[in-house]
Specification:
3 helices, five-stranded antiparallel beta sheet, four-stranded antiparallel beta sheet, mainly beta, 465 residues
């Protein structure tokens, strides 16, 4: 059991070492207090709150615009589908909306839905967070969206699948490109044993009154954008290609936009010598290529959650086949997609070796979570399970930490799906805030009122002979 009483808000802040700006995140997840999207400054003050705008994730665009969702389907399986994907202005007026992917429900009560989940990207910016010189469109541009479709594919299973589909829609809502994940099942490299496990149980989950197989559970998609890998002649990294991560399959992959083929991937098998330095990615989230213009450009950045996932049996003491790969801590990895060499990482071991005073063996978020490369080389990390957002330097010094005060309904926990840092100039409606350093509290003396040195009654010294 984790600590139940702890401070919230900004708990550590070194202005001179941070990449200062605003941070956006969704204030509640899984049927919580319906807080909506929250924009905070470095000291944790709320600059704007768009109540009723969910975020899977929330993306802020230049000019104070924000994207998110309105209307959530299937609360109790974890905020899996949105009704409307929208863009709103600073005052909450909706200026763009997409929902015309599928009509859901009976004839009398059917509703058009985007069925969007986990990620989307607006044209102009490949990854959804700040990249120098790459601003997403606010009144034009296509949008790439992860959606769901219920379908049958006997090559995978005779059971109904909750399949992941990536679509591209124009500004006026027309679908101009579509990629169906199950169509590419044979490209993914599953062993025959794994295929048998998948056929028996393709990760069956409840979708309202139905059981469906969430076999891939795709949780991120972004464009590669201009990059040095393609400039060097490697066509796998064409700027229009898309990279995704699949939580249940432990796969990260790149889709060739033109053909739809998967042309690069890690997983589901991590036993090859080429992948030994990376090790097994378990339930990965937010895999993306660091865009040109940011430190580490051209490398892959991924939040490697740990927890349970996969369809392959590798732990001899685990009796099941589904979600049996297990690790009880998280990692954030940056690696070269060509050599597969790790160029930077954060985990409990590297934190201890590089910076013992920041050692935290509890760094662990078994689901959700993300990592953003900042313009000064720092990395913003969302440890989603506990609602912790923090910034570290390349040397793993902890220079900013924020703990969400917003609770979510089912488990009453401060889940944060994904947070993004953005520059002050993207919000012309607000004055640049004062940046006040926050010193790390000394936990040995930090007390709830009524406790501490003033109420110590007696200290007894042991006398040695």
């Amino acid at each position: 059991m984790s600590i139940t009483v702890h401070p919230t808000g900004t708990t550590i802040y070194n202005p001179d070492r941070c990449w200062n700006g605003y941070t956006v995140f969704q204030g509640s997840l899984f049927k919580g207090e319906r807080v909506g999207a929250v924009l905070i400054d470095m000291n944790g003050n709320v600059v704007n709150q768009w109540r009723g705008l969910d975020g899977f994730p929330n993306i802020v665009l230049p000019g104070g615009y924000i994207m998110g969702s309105i209307g959530i389907r299937n609360y109790y399986y974890g905020l899996q589908e949105t009704v409307d994907l929208v863009q709103a202005d600073w005052n909450g007026n909706i200026v763009w909306k997409f929902n015309k992917y599928e009509q859901v429900g009976s004839d009398k009560s059917s509703v058009w839905m985007a069925r969007q989940h986990h990620d989307y990207q607006r044209e102009g910016n490949p990854v959804g967070y700040y990249v120098p010189g790459m601003n997403a469109g606010t009144d034009n541009g296509n949008t790439v969206i992860i959606t769901h479709r219920n379908l049958k594919n006997s090559r995978i299973s005779e059971k109904t699948l909750l399949d992941d589909v990536i679509i591209e829609v124009s500004w006026d809502g027309k679908i101009v490109w579509e990629w169906i994940c199950s169509d590419h099942f044979e490209e993914l490299g599953f062993s025959e044993d794994t295929k048998k496990i998948l056929a028996s149980d393709p990760n069956m989950v409840s979708l309202e009154n139905k059981k469906v197989g969430d076999w891939m559970h795709m949780n991120s998609v972004s464009l590669l954008g201009p990059n040095k890998r393609y400039d060097a002649g490697d066509n796998r990294f064409h700027p229009e290609n898309l990279i995704f991560s699949g939580r249940q399959t432990d796969i990260t992959g790149i889709i060739e936009k033109k053909s739809g083929r998967i042309v690069w991937q890690t997983g589901p098998d991590y036993s090859s010598s080429e992948l030994q330095e990376i090790g097994s990615l378990i339930g990965p989230h937010h895999a993306h290529m660091i865009p040109t213009g940011l430190p580490g450009e051209g490398n892959i950045l991924v939040f490697d959650n740990g927890g349970q996932s996969g369809y392959r049996r590798t732990n001899a003491d685990y009796s099941g086949d589904l979600s049996h790969v297990f690790r009880d801590y998280s990692r954030v990895l940056e690696f070269d997609p060509v050599s597969l060499k790790v160029t930077w990482k954060l985990d409990k071991v590297s934190m201890w070796r590089n910076n013992p005073e920041n050692f935290d063996f509890r760094f662990y978020s078994s689901h959700i979570s993300s990592a953003q490369r900042l313009a000064n080389g720092n990395t913003l990390i969302t440890e989603g399970n506990i609602g912790r957002i923090f910034e570290v330097t390349p040397e793993l010094d902890l220079v900013w930490e924020y703990v969400s005060p917003y609770k979510s309904g089912i488990l009453n926990l401060p889940f944060v799906y994904r947070a993004y840092r953005l520059p002050y100039e993207w919000i012309p409606q607000a004055d640049i805030p004062e940046q006040i350093a926050v010193q790390r509290p000394d936990n040995s003396t930090f007390r709830v009122p009524g406790q501490g040195p003033s109420v110590i009654r007696k200290v007894t010294e042991i006398k040695l002979k």
